[in-house]
Amino acid sequence: VGDDQKQHVELTRDLAERFNSRFGETFTVPVPMIQQETARIYDLQNPTAKMSKSAESDAGVLWLLDEPSVSAKKVMRAVTDSEGSVRYDRENKP
């Protein structure tokens, strides 16, 4: 899950634990699995901002109902840098 969805998993965990304590082991208690590198998906046009439905531009957001050709066009037009390497450095290379 994403960083902004952790609270929903925690609520589900609390409900499952409470139900299981009263009625026996019925539900699997979920554990949030958040990888720091992918905890937030960043806007394709503004890489310092989180991808959001309230983004300034629709060009920076991938929608589930976008046609594949539209999604491909958005990805191909995403803001990148001119460095010749691919590396994860959130501080110096957003």
TrEMBL record:
GO molecular function: ATP binding; tryptophan-tRNA ligase activity
Gene Ontology terms: cellular component: cytosol
UniProt entry keywords in alphabetical sequence: Aminoacyl-tRNA synthetase, ATP-binding, Ligase, Nucleotide-binding, Protein biosynthesis
Pfam families, A to Z: tRNA-synt_1b (PF00579)
Protein name, per record: Tryptophan--tRNA ligase
UniProt-listed GO biological process terms: tryptophanyl-tRNA aminoacylation
InterPro entries tied to this protein: aa-tRNA-synth_Ic (IPR002305), Rossmann-like_a/b/a_fold (IPR014729), Trp-tRNA_synthetase (IPR050203)
UniProt keyword annotation of Membrane present: no
Xref: SUPFAM superfamilies: Nucleotidylyl transferase
Protein biosynthesis listed as a keyword: yes
Gene3D superfamilies cross-referenced by the UniProt entry: HUPs, Tyrosyl-Transfer RNA Synthetase
